[in-house]
Amino acid sequence: MSPPTLFPSERTSPGEIERFLHKQGLTMLLGVDEAGRGALFGPVTAAAVVFGPQGLVPDGVRDSKELDQRQREELEQAIMGSAAAFGVGMASAEEIDSSDILRATFLAMRRAIEGCLLQLGASVQLVLVDGPLLIEGLALPQKPVVKGDQRSLHIAAASILAKVARDRLIVELAGHYPGYGLERNKGYGTAAHQEAIGRLGLSSLHRRSFCKGFLPAEG
Question: Of 48, 66, 110, 181, which is most buried, counting CB atoms within 10 Å of its CB?
Fold first, then answer.
């Protein structure tokens, strides 16, 4: 079954996409989103979530950017407890530098989806992807959803899992890579982080292709 033509407006309310698809018989949906795409340090992270026909989306699920850390961490546990399956995938700084951020993001998304499907033990009818692009190399029916983390509860749930997983990893790595303020900036290019790169140089987990402008001039 080919993905339906849907969502004439970008102003659909959260969950309306799922209700629309359920009426068409599409109840095995998978939402996928990423976190850390614009960071200078560490991997880009993706998460995939399936709630299934009977799955209840926890109250409060919405775009991770609208939530604080405590809310995200609480919802992470609720999502994991109610989802039929979930997966998290990452693409490393080295993989980002060896290709580009878009291909690395697709790689992280495919890894998250693969992990989710292994846990699910079943197929999904449609993958809902945050953003305007299809996932390159994914052999499943998929539909890009612009502003999907605001419009699809599956994508919103994935955005929460991806954000919490990545933030947790960066905080753990901060102790191994001191001086960059990673526990505060989560690897993003704050002024303090840029200054630290200029002073300390790059660690092995910085994205070199992202950081060229912050290194001291040679000679």
Answer: 48
User: Measured between alpha carbons, how far is 60 from 109 in angstroms, rounded to an integer?
Assistant: 24
Residue type, 206: H
* Total number of domains in the chain: 1
CATH assignment at residue 158: 3.30.420.10
Residue 137 lies in a domain: yes
User: How long is the chain?
Assistant: 219
Phi, psi of 89 (to 5 degrees): -135, 150
Cα 178 to Cα 27: distance, rounded to the nearest angstrom = 46
Mean pLDDT of the chain: 92
Give the C-alpha distances (Å, rounded to integers) separating 16 from 3, 21, 148, 158: 16, 9, 11, 17
Q: Whose structure tokens read 């912050």?
A: 214
Q: What is the 3-state secondary structure (H, E, C) of 8-25?
A: CCCCCCCCHHHHHHHHCC
How would residue 1 be classed by pLDDT, with cut points 50, 70 and 90? very low
For residue 28, the enclosing domain spans 16-174
Residue 210 inside a domain? The answer is no
User: Residue 73 gets which letter from DSSP?
Assistant: H
Rg (CA), the chain: 18
Tokens of 2: 């080919």
Rounded to an integer, the average pLDDT of 179-192 is 97
